[in-house]
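This part of the workshop introduces the protein records we will be handling. A record pairs a protein's sequence with a compact description of its fold. Backbone structure tokens are a discrete shorthand for how the chain folds in space. The question running through the whole workshop is how a given chain folds. The record below serves as our worked example for the rest of this section.
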Amino acid sequence: MSPYRSPAATLALALVFAAGVGAGCAHTHTVTDTGASKPADKPAAKHRDDISADAPGRTIRAKSGTPLATSPAGLLEPEAVKEIQKKLVSHGQLAEAAESGKLDGPTEKALRQFQHANNMPATGMPDDLTIQKLGLKPTELTRAATKSE
């Protein structure tokens, strides 16, 4: 007896297999509502700009007692934004009339322009690298947590 099947037997076996696979997937599927698509009861988190508007430059405390800044301005010393704005004016990125002492829209736009011109990520935020490229010292302009905080 030959170990090989005839072409007719192979075809018949293939048809039986195909019919079995097709029938096996013909069962019905029941889907129930798990409630996962329902909106949450708690309100959506505030946008960064909303938080900044509520408490610009304010520092709050987490439940653990760790101080948290409510905005990027909260990470800066009180006079830091004015110093940054002066440098942005000297670099031609900000008009003198726009010097407000606040991390506002015109200042963020000027920071983005400066960052883009200096091949940095254009975030509009005064990070350490941006402060350094402006010719200022980040350690003098940013706040550091103390052990008592």
